[in-house]
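Lecture 7 notes: from sequence to structure.
We start with the chain below.
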Amino acid sequence: MTSTEKPRYPELLSLAVHEFRTPASVVGGYLRMLQRDSDSFTERQRKMIDEAEKSCARLVALIGELSDVSKLDAGIITLNRQPIDLFPLLAEVAEHVQEGKDREVSLEVRGRAEGATIAGDAARLRSAADAIFRAILREKAGPSLVVADRRLESNGAATSAVIVVAEDQNVQAAYDSTPGAFDEKRGGLGLALPLARRVIEGLGGRIWSPAKEEGSDDALARAAILISFPVTEPSR
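Predicted structure tokens for the same chain:
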């Protein structure tokens, strides 16, 4: 690269990951040492050390996500493309999502239980689904039911698996809405949503939110996420 060329985006991310990872790991190591020597501290000091260690661990996790983003953008990470039924995978992920339970926000999976075989990367699809579920659940301040509705769409010889994640009463409205941009800039989720988008699109899928209608608020756009994948082996 000549002095007049600008560094490429993935290379810049990779450099940032390298520079952040070492000091964050050192700080985390020292904090864990202090935790093991907790008898030397007061209760208040122990709590402060514990909170510092949790925050440092979160920072390390964010650095790992940043690394994955840079590698996906640079084409360094190769996504697996194995036959996998997407619908039961989503149900498995939903069983372990804890987001919102303290606010009486629940998640229910409905629709087709199977029959959506796609060429996918199971581990990364699980992480993507977890991020999407949590993103919608976080929008709910109080008691409510969020539904992940699984559907098969046929368009001539092609079949698609469509997943609508929205509040119970808004599932059909979200499904019928005009597709809009996917808002991946949501607080509290780190880089999980940008990673989810890259994985879904890298496997040939689409992810979007309902478009904001003119003259209306963006409540539905923020409160629903839709995903679509081409089905490689439709159910018979």
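Points to note: Confidence is low (pLDDT under 50) at residues 1-7. Residues 82-234 form a domain with the Heat Shock Protein 90 fold (CATH 3.30.565.10).
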